[in-house]
Design goal:
This protein is of the alpha/beta class. It has 11 helices and 14 strands.
């Protein structure tokens, strides 16, 4: 099978190339890049020398020759390519926000400042979080547009989903406090990502107005069956890769205990019960790792992998669930999840091309 990548020289596009080059069901790559058209991928990224070799072509040429097409382009430009793929009966997996909101054009337009060019394509689109929508992805029978989730929403939704699905979350506000590596800002240099600006600094940004907020909120609501109050604050962390999301979920059985703390045995028992619920919820998921009791999820344990690690904690009163959810923003947060979706569409083993052990260093 030939896999095509439009936008192959951005960070997420290059990560797609890296992972697809080792995929057992992919025997050819068709790549496109506006910035480097006519060059070769191994010249742009020398790490591909003798491992992945392909000329960088026009997007139309990739769509004609590839069997499945990934798009790693900014939002608002992929619909034409999606339409061309659907007309040719080819799956289109989009890493932008263009197909993450389904038929809800109003929300997309409000947050991204663009309207849908081909609204009818949403009838064939599905939100590509496998742990949430695996059956819907399969049900499209290959004639599908997959809206690959955002990186922050992936970590947030996976961290909160069992609590929301099992009715443990109370009516209060869920707080998602998250930090991302600098690759999340893309390859184009800007002042915010200049080394002297971002090294040795943890920087909140787009406080109260980040575009991933409605994506998280709509999926929280889909899982819980009700609107879920949400506060989401992203931070830029001085690391290349990774997302760490600390998710504060008020529990439905929360009680105002005043200055008194419940016995430590009571906290431990409640934590163990919630941990068991999370472990049971994700027991059949190939990329979900609910860490042992007492462990804390950290980003370098999932580096260059498609895993999402989760650790379970309670606050000192036992009324607030604290979930730590970590992913590699370039893999489970982008390219790896896109390939996971391709595997589902084609009926491949879900971990095909994604089974490498995380790199600790």
């Amino acid at each position: 099978m030939k896999a095509g990548v439009i936008g192959a020289t951005g960070y997420a596009g290059a990560e797609l190339v890296r992972l697809l080059a080792g995929h057992p069901n992919v025997d050819g790559l068709e790549l496109s890049s506006v910035s480097y058209e006519g060059d070769r991928i191994e010249n742009v990224y020398p790490n591909f020398f003798k491992k992945a070799s392909a000329e960088l072509k026009k997007a139309d040429a990739v769509i004609e020759t590839a069997d499945v097409v990934f798009s790693s382009l900014p939002h608002g430009v992929g619909e034409t390519f999606a339409k061309a793929c659907i007309e040719r009966g080819k799956p289109f997996i989009d890493l932008s926000a263009d197909f993450r909101f389904g038929s809800d054009e109003a929300t997309f337009s409000a947050w991204y400042g663009k309207s849908y060019q081909y609204p009818e394509l949403r009838e064939l689109s599905v939100y590509g979080l496998p742990e949430l929508n695996r059956q819907a992805i399969k049900a499209k029978n290959g004639r599908v547009i997959v809206g690959n989730p955002g990186c922050y929403p992936t970590a947030a939704i996976l961290g909160a989903m069992p609590a929301l699905a099992k009715g443990m979350a109370g009516p209060g506000t869920i707080i998602v406090d998250a930090a991302s590596g600098i690759t999340g800002g893309g390859r184009e240099p800007t002042r915010a990502y200049h080394f002297p600006e971002c090294a040795d600094a943890l920087s909140p940004y787009k406080v109260g107005c980040h575009r991933h907020t409605p994506e998280i909120a709509r999926n929280f609501a889909a899982v819980a069956g009700r609107a879920v109050p949400l506060v989401f604050t992203p931070h830029l962390a001085p690391m290349n890769r990774g997302i760490l999301a600390t998710i504060y979920i008020p529990l439905v059985d929360a009680q105002l205990l005043g200055p008194h703390r419940p016995p430590s045995e009571e906290i431990a028992a409640k934590t163990a019960a919630i941990h068991a619920l999370y472990a049971e919820f994700y027991k059949d998921e190939p990329f979900m790792r609910v860490l042992p009791m007492g462990s804390v999820a950290v980003t370098n344990r999932v580096r260059q992998s498609n895993f999402c690690d989760i650790s379970i904690h309670l606050d000192q009163t036992g009324s607030m669930l604290i979930v730590i959810s970590v992913i590699d923003n370039m893999v489970k947060g982008a390219a790896g999840q896109a390939i996971q979706n391709m595997n589902i569409v084609y009926g491949f083993a879900e971990d095909a091309g994604l089974s490498a052990v995380p790199s600790l260093f």
